[in-house]
Each structure stands twice: as C-alpha cells, then as structure tokens.
Write a structure and sequence with these properties.
The protein is an alpha+beta fold. It has ten helices and ten strands. The chain is flat and about 80 Å long. The two termini are 47 Å apart.
C-alpha cells in the first residue's frame, strides 16, 4: 500500500491499526466510520477505490466512487457526535444490531468501469499497471500484424525494415533546424512499449505532418520503419504508423467464418450475412461449414466455401465484434497478410 501515490503514511497506518485491533472492514461505510475522517479524506478514499483496495467489499468501483461523498459525510457526522459525547443514529440503543448480524449496505446502481478505465486509474495511482497491461487484450492481433519483436532489434542490421507493435509511452516533440521539402519542421520522439521491451521511435517532419495526431500516450499501434543503430541503443525511424483499426483493414487478407453443426442454425447464418452486407470492402470471406452424411454411422465433414459473387468485406474491430457476438469468437478468424493464420478447425 506504500506504493500508492497520494495516500499519506498516517492514513494507511490508521487503517491497518484499526483492522488489526477490531477486525476486517465489511463495507465502505464501515471503513469510513471506523477511521478518523481527518486521515481518511475524500481524496484518499477515491484513490483507494482506484487501486482496487475496496474490491473485496463486493460492489464495483464505479458504485463505490458514487458513494464516496455519502460515506465521508456519514463518518464526519459520527466523529463529530463522538466529540460532543453523543451517539449517532447508528449507535442508538434501540437500533443496535445483534452480534453476528450484518446490515445490508445498498449502493447506487452504476455500470462498472471498463477494463481500460481500471488500468488507466491503476497507472495513475501506482505509476504502473497492476492487474494487467493494456497490451494484453491486443496481444493476439499484435502478433498477427507484426513481423519483429522489440527484443530482436539490437541484433538486426542498420536500416533493416521492421514492422513492430506496441503501446505509445513517453512523447517528446521538437523542431528541426531545417525545414523539410514540404516546409515542415515539427517532429516527435516516442517510446513504443511492446513484447521484449521498449524502443525509441523517431517520426521525422514529413511523416509527422501526415500522421502525427496518432502519436498519443497509451495508443496501441503498429509501426513500420527501419532500424537505426547509430546511437547506443537501437532506434526505429517511423515510415508509417497505423492504429489497430487501420492495421486490421490493411493487413487482413481473409475473414474465415465457421458454422458448427449443433451450435449454429439458419438463423445465425442469416444474421452473419446481414452483418457482412453492412461492411462492404476488399477482404475475402471464407465460410467453413460442418455437416454429416446420412449414413448409419455419420461422419463429420467440413466444407470450405467461398460464397457466390465472391463476397468481400471491410475488416475492422467493429466487424469482428459483431460477428463474434453472433457466432462466438472461437468460430471466427481474421487472417493476416503478415503471418499465416490457420482457419477455424
């Protein structure tokens, strides 16, 4: 807990002491009313929620955040009454809760934070990602769209062409002394965090003028460029930067869709066709259909079909999401031009 930014040592120590002396906390109100509000302030409580420290109470982090003001005010009222020698409403003899009995705490309804929101808040208060890394959910796509790992760059030849992927880290913008052929001077250096480490990327004025707006902290992207070994460590000169959506469109050669016997019916087939029709584009679609013959001992067979008229689509994360919802993620494969990916079996 000492690694949490913005939480004083005295506040943490009081929480620990109270827990050791009087047992575990049961909910957010139980926590705030047992710890002096001078130490456990509104800001401190919000930070603890962002770290996941209150997850053990059950409700989600968004619900706890929506309850902070009420919980802090209840604690302030209770401690004020104690100083006056009074009992709070919760301590009234007529309302005492029998030993072993618990009072249900009702929190306001609120949709839980998304995975990315949780990670962003953890990075804010810890300085690092705790539960996972933003790259985790993009690992499969990154592996399809990239050719090289960051760890391999130092062993490559100078000016070798590379395609790497990762997340934009620290960014430093600057200006060249001379203007480019098209009159540009602004350029950017940024760290790309990926498999095997971090590499410094340099986007010179011409490319920065074309796609510099995509260089945003925590942006997941694919970088095409060449290795620069003139410094102590390998750098990458960026020739092109693509977001994951752009990479999906550019690198996907084929969308393979499997209809499984006993799992999918004509209804799912119609839904899939309707989805595909909404995303016209250049990418080929392959259907894999399971069937059996009509013998006494039926044999399961798979048929690989390209639909009449060579149905083609525009590959994108949104298309992937809709198809996965209709037939299941495991029945779907976006086959990349970068690496050969087997069709669903």
């Amino acid at each position: 807990m000492g690694a949490i930014k913005g939480v004083g040592e005295s506040a943490l120590q009081e929480v620990i002491n109270e827990r050791e002396d009087n047992g575990p906390f049961t909910d957010i109100f139980n926590l705030t009313e047992r710890v002096d509000p001078k130490n456990l302030t509104r800001g401190t409580l919000e930070i603890l929620i962002k770290t996941g420290a209150l997850d053990c109470f059950g409700p989600n982090r968004a619900q706890h955040t929506a309850t902070v003001d009420r919980a802090v005010q209840a604690a302030i009222s209770k401690f004020r009454d104690k100083k006056r020698g009074q009992k709070s409403l919760f301590d009234d003899d007529s309302e005492e809760v029998e030993e072993g009995e618990t009072t249900a705490v009702v929190l306001p309804e609120a949709a839980d934070w998304t995975h990315s929101q949780k990670l962003a808040n953890e990075k804010e208060v810890f300085g690092f990602y705790l539960t996972s890394h933003p790259l985790t959910q993009h690992a499969e796509n990154l592996s399809q769209f990239t050719v090289h790992n960051i760890a391999d760059l130092s062993g490559m030849n100078d000016k070798a062409d590379v395609i790497i992927g990762g997340m934009v880290g620290s960014i430093k913008k600057a200006r060249t002394k001379k203007t480019s052929r098209n009159g540009h001077q602004d350029y950017v250096n940024f760290d790309l965090e990926g498999v095997g480490g971090i590499v410094r990327c340099i986007m010179w004025p011409e490319e920065f003028a074309r796609s510099g707006e995509k260089v945003v902290t925590e942006q997941i992207c694919i970088v095409r460029g060449r290795v620069d070994l003139r410094g102590r460590e390998a750098n990458v000169i960026v020739n092109k930067l693509l977001t994951m959506e752009e990479a999906e469109k550019e690198f996907t050669q084929q969308v393979a869709i499997k209809f499984q016997r006993g799992r999918h019916s004509e209804h799912e087939m119609r839904v899939v066709r309707e989805i595909l029709d909404r995303y016209p584009g250049p990418t080929e679609v392959l259907f894999v259909v399971e069937s059996t013959d009509d013998t006494e001992n039926p044999v399961l067979k798979r048929y690989y079909l390209s639909p009449p008229g060579a149905l083609r689509v525009s590959a994108s994360p949104k298309l992937r999401q809709e198809l996965a919802h209709a037939i299941g993620e495991d029945q779907l494969q976006f086959r990349s031009a970068q690496k050969s990916t087997p069709v669903p079996r």
